[in-house]
Write a structure and sequence with these properties.
Elements (H helix, E strand, L loop, with lengths): L4 H10 L6 H23 L29 H6 L4 E2 L2 E2 L7
Antiparallel strand pairs: 1-2
Length: about 100
């Protein structure tokens, strides 16, 4: 699969990124490499390979969920940029 320069430019515009020509060229090379690796993996015979979630064996990764007292409201609001009890006030960021 190939991605054209126009598709990269459109994707960067959609993501609100300003890419310099050299950055765009680097991303094209990296993406081409990723697609080549994906194509190789798709063509590999992996039918006999057992699926894994972690590369290393893990034991006792889940701890018991214990109830604990929560943070007092005054302490939680003390570092907030603005507070009107019991709410934290933050600047509006929606365009």
């Amino acid at each position: 699969m190939e991605i054209s320069r126009e598709e990269f430019m459109q994707a960067s515009w959609d993501a609100r990124l300003e890419l310099m020509p050299e950055e765009l060229e680097g991303l094209e090379k990296q993406t081409k490499n990723i697609f080549e690796q994906a194509t190789f993996l798709q063509s590999s015979a992996l039918d006999d390979v057992e699926a894994t979630y972690f590369p290393l064996a893990q034991k006792n990764t889940v701890r018991e969920d214990l109830a604990a007292p929560s943070l007092p409201l005054e302490t939680a609001l003390s570092n907030a940029p603005g507070a009107e009890s019991p709410y934290i006030q933050v600047p509006k960021i929606v365009e």
